[in-house]
Design brief:
Layout: E1 17-27, E2 30-39, E3 46-54, E4 60-68, E5 77-85, E6 90-97, E7 110-117, H1 118-121, E8 133-142, E9 145-158, H2 162-167, E10 179-188, E11 210-219
Antiparallel strand pairs: 1-2, 2-3, 3-4, 4-11, 5-10, 6-7, 6-8, 8-9, 9-10, 9-11
């Protein structure tokens, strides 16, 4: 109710958000952009500086440093979503696996080197929803790209977009769009909710106000 565009009075409208770029410069050979994220007709909930450095060997460094609005509701996730060709559906990773793992749903998995694909990552929940996340990640190799970080990150590889999962009420309504959807996240909020039982404990909410997220992409 507080994330989506449910009514005109409440909610951050992040199901229809957009990015605003205030300025973009080249500083010391790096692309530096000052930006914000906001839902339509809402005050920005995240203001940040994004720095991208591209090297001759094809390596690309990403850094996002910013602040979440103090009175903003906790976020479902924060990161990047990339659409890849449907044929790019197999990957290798060093993270929590082989099962899906979230900050409040991870004790069935352990950190290691695994291989998987979009079919194996899909979890056939009665109502289509978030699935297939892996936390404590240090490396993900998919197609011609390898994602690495000195810090931990979270990732998700799915044949469904976040919007497809949002609008489908039943399994037979879930549609693919001919792409592989890759999500590289700073953090992802836990899976628990008040739908059946108590609400999500504060320790499992993405409620950070100071964000510093870095990772690199290396061409294979």
């Amino acid at each position: 109710m507080r994330w989506a565009r449910v009514n005109i009075w409440q909610g951050e409208n992040i199901d229809c958000q957009f990015t605003k770029v205030y300025d973009c410069q080249i500083i010391d050979g790096k692309i530096v952009a000052n930006c914000s994220l906001a839902g339509v007709s809402r005050v920005p909930y995240f203001k940040y500086c994004q720095t991208i450095a591209i090297y001759e060997n094809g390596k690309i460094d990403f850094n996002v440093n910013g602040k979440v609005r103090e009175d903003a509701f906790f976020l479902p996730r924060l990161g990047y979503e990339i659409a890849l060709p449907e044929t790019t559906n197999e990957f290798t990773y060093f993270a929590n696996g082989p099962y899906e793992s979230y900050c409040d749903l991870c004790h069935a998995s352990k950190v290691g080197l695994y291989q998987s694909n979009t079919e194996n990552e899909y979890v056939n929940y009665v109502r289509p929803q978030e699935h297939g996340n892996h936390n404590f990640a240090k490396m993900l190799k998919i197609g011609d790209l390898t994602f690495v970080s000195d810090k931990e990150f979270e990732f998700n590889v799915s044949k469904y977009s976040t919007n497809a999962l949002l609008i489908a009420e039943h399994v037979d309504e879930l549609k693919t769009d001919g792409k592989t959807h890759l999500r590289i996240d700073y953090k992802v909020t836990g899976m628990g909710s008040a739908a059946c039982g108590p609400g999500l404990a504060d320790e499992y909410k993405l409620n950070d106000k100071e964000i510093d997220f870095s990772f690199s992409i290396v061409l294979n």
